[in-house]
Amino acid sequence: MISKNIRDALNHQVNVEFISAYTYLSMGSYASCQGLDGVAHWFHAQAREEIHHGWKVYEYVHEQGEHVILEAIAKPESEFESAMHMFRLALENEQALTKRINELVELARADNDTATEVFLQWFVTEQVEEENQARHIIDMLNLAGDTGEGLFLVNKELSQRAFSPQEE
User: Fold this and answer.
1) What CATH code would you report for 4-71+80-167?
2) Which residue among 3, 19, 69, 110 has its CA within the 20 to 30 Å range from the CA of 159?
3) Three-state SS string across the chain, please?
């Protein structure tokens, strides 16, 4: 069983993951309307991944015999300057998620909750990958350009992203 502090923090993390998914869905919709179907595809896959992360936390809370309480989700931004702008925001979002996961690990340690700390290690590793992906795309956009042929090529590459929860 987990403490009230851990339960409340994990409950909030479920919502943080779903808010992240909601943000990525908005970015995907915007990209799609701009003719950037590859970028949209990447953000839609990212949204599914964040939902999957939220479910992992949700299931863990229930496995610990606790109740998940969902919070309201605010409307995300719906207009963006460019693909670069969206990926910079995505990187900021992933960095905030990393900070949040690290805080959860510290809370589990302070609470002497080894099971939760071990559970969270998967997320620690995942966040390294998440930040790296966003940085890599920003690097590609910096090299290729955020308009014209360069953006066309990056857009095409991003359309190849796959997400399968079994891989996680």
Assistant:
1) 1.20.1260.10
2) 19
3) CCCHHHHHHHHHHHHHHHHHHHHHHHHHHHHHHCCCHHHHHHHHHHHHHHHHHHHHHHHHHHHCCCCCCCCCCCCCCCCCCCHHHHHHHHHHHHHHHHHHHHHHHHHHHHCCCHHHHHHHHHHHHHHHHHHHHHHHHHHHHHHHCCCHHHHHHHHHHHCCCCCCHHHC
Domain residue limits, the chain: 4-71+80-167
φ, ψ (nearest 5 deg) of residue 68: -90, 130
Summary mean pLDDT of the chain: 95
Please tell me the distance from the alpha carbon of residue 13 to that of residue 47, in angstroms, as a whole number: 15
Split at pLDDT 50, 70, 90, the class of 18 is very high
Q: How many CB atoms lie within 10 A of CB 7?
A: 19
Distance CA 68, CA 60 (A): 10
User: Which among 92, 93, 122, 90 is positioned nearest to 105, based on CA atoms?
Assistant: 122
pLDDT (tens digit, 9 = 90+) per residue, 84-132?
Answer: 999 999 999 999 999 999 999 999 999 999 999 999 999 999 999 999 9
